[in-house]
Design goal:
- The protein is α/β, with parallel strands linked by helices.
- It is 41% helix and 19% strand.
- The protein is built from 10 helices and 12 strands.
- Strands 1-2-3-4-7-8-9-12 form an 8-stranded parallel beta barrel, surrounded by 4 helices. A two-stranded antiparallel sheet has the order 5-6.
- Strand 7, helix 6 and strand 8 form a beta-alpha-beta unit.
- The chain is globular, with a radius of gyration of 18 Å.
- It starts with 9 loop residues before the first strand and ends in a 6-residue tail after the last helix.
């Protein structure tokens, strides 16, 4: 299925832990998000579940293995996997970071220096990816736990510059903004206000946990109130409803609990747009 996702659509990140229950419940989701690393290379029962869910709901792709900011050539095998899935995806996103060193994946989303040199490098790589696929790449702002010593740009300025110069889309992870604001002493509202909100194709909302003095982006739930508050601000500032995915990957809840969060996202988006004359 490759049906159009409504502007105010809300969905979930598809996990194998609850994919079967999701199909059985047949909820009124607007779309689902799939991580190719968790689904595309598997056969058997998992592949059947993957195909059944993609047939039931419009689908977007969200990977962690592109390593768009990395120093090594793009992974040809992974690019081929994405190219094979792309015709059935409404869009595909990955992260503004790197995660591949010495030909091996780190299984972590590692931060990039916020420098002009990094902007130039990432922009070139994004354009290469978009040329290969013949479609827009959507980049997500990532959660980080340390600052690199040669940062020359503020984080939102770095994100904005990459997205605008690469002419690509933005996946605005509200939870990551809240985490980074806490971890690095940023103003979360000013961060959102500084982003190119017209380029936001999708929003993520998720929970986090404290670990020592830091907040850890572990996608536990339910979504905290400070994330919902910033979500409403982003919707108001954008002046439009934006497709939203609820991520809950740690201490995975029941389908019923997950769908409460989906309903909450719909309500918060509508609340944000009240009085703006849009929906």
């Amino acid at each position: 299925m490759n049906a159009r996702i409504p502007d105010g659509g809300v969905g979930v990140l598809l996990l194998h832990e609850y994919a079967e229950a999701l199909l059985a419940a047949d909820p009124s989701l607007d779309f689902i998000e799939v991580m190719p690393e968790n689904w595309a290379r598997f056969g058997g029962r998992r592949r059947r579940l993957f195909d059944a869910c993609r047939e039931r709901w419009p689908t977007v792709g969200h990977s962690i293995s592109l390593s768009v900011g990395g120093p090594e050539p793009l992974d040809e095998e992974f690019s081929a996997t994405i190219a094979g899935l792309a015709p059935g995806l409404s869009w595909w996103s990955d992260h503004l970071c790197f995660g591949r060193i010495g030909g091996a994946y780190t299984h972590a989303l590692l931060p990039l220096p916020h420098s002009e040199e990094a902007v130039t490098h990432v922009v070139r790589r994004v354009k290469e990816v978009q040329a290969r696929l013949g479609r827009e790449l959507v980049l997500e702002n990532v959660a980080t736990y340390a600052r690199l010593p040669d940062d020359a740009l503020a984080e939102p300025a770095f994100v904005r510059t990459v997205v605008e110069e690469a002419d690509c889309g933005l996946l605005l992870d509200i939870g990551n903004v809240v985490v980074n604001a806490h971890n690095h002493g940023l103003d979360p509202e000013a961060y959102v206000d500084a982003l190119p909100l017209a380029r936001v194709r999708e929003i993520h909302v998720a929970g986090h946990r404290p670990r020592g003095p830091l907040l850890l982006d572990d996608h536990t739930g339910p979504v905290p109130e400070r994330v919902w508050s910033l979500y409403r601000r982003a919707i108001r500032k954008a002046g439009r409803a934006i497709p939203t995915i609820v991520e809950w990957e740690t201490d995975v809840p029941s389908i019923e609990t997950l769908l409460v969060e989906v309903a909450r996202a719909r309500g918060e988006s509508a609340r944000a747009l009240e009085g703006l004359g849009c929906g």
